[in-house]
Design goal:
The chain is α/β, with parallel strands linked by helices. The chain has a single domain (4-136), classed as Hexapeptide repeat proteins (UDP N-Acetylglucosamine Acyltransferase, domain 1). It is 19% helix and 22% strand. A six-stranded mixed sheet has the order 2-5-8-11-13-14, with no helix packed on it. A four-stranded parallel sheet has the order 1-4-7-10, with no helix packed on it.
């Protein structure tokens, strides 16, 4: 099965070229096939992938993900009221199944986010975080 990332790349390509309707159709296709909301407006770095194709992933349209990120199933990356800013995620980040990354935060490079963690604070480079709310454990 084709990973959700390939469909995102196609939709983002057409969005960058200002081709009407096609990005929206691909986004709808992603929703129908993977039950995910990965908008073509967000920025996902090269080499990134989604576990099990990307089932249940929700990403805010203004989020920025670095290169070589691995995102598990049922991950939510989005804003938090009353803030306008959304998470910025560095390179080589592993986000395990069920993790929630919320609010105007920054996730450093080479970070591991544990399963079902709720990240609401900045995470420095080269750390492992887990828990609700997430704390640095390594």
């Amino acid at each position: 099965m084709i990973n959700l990332y390939k469909f995102y790349n196609w939709a983002n390509f057409f969005y960058q070229k200002r081709v009407p309707f096609i990005p929206s159709i691909i986004k709808l296709f992603i929703f129908l096939i993977y039950n995910s909301s990965v908008p073509y407006q967000c920025k996902i770095g090269k080499g990134s992938s989604f576990g099990y194709g990307g089932i249940g992933v929700v990403i805010h349209k203004r989020c920025v993900l670095g290169k070589n990120c691995l995102i598990g199933t049922n991950v939510t990356i989005g804003g938090k009221a009353p803030y306008d800013k959304v998470p910025v995620i560095g390179n080589n980040v592993y986000i395990a199944t069920g993790a929630k990354i919320l609010g105007p935060i920054s996730i450093g490079d080479n970070v591991i986010i544990g399963a079902n963690a709720v990240v609401i604070n900045d995470v420095p480079d080269n750390c492992t975080v887990a828990g609700v709310p997430a704390k640095i454990i390594k």
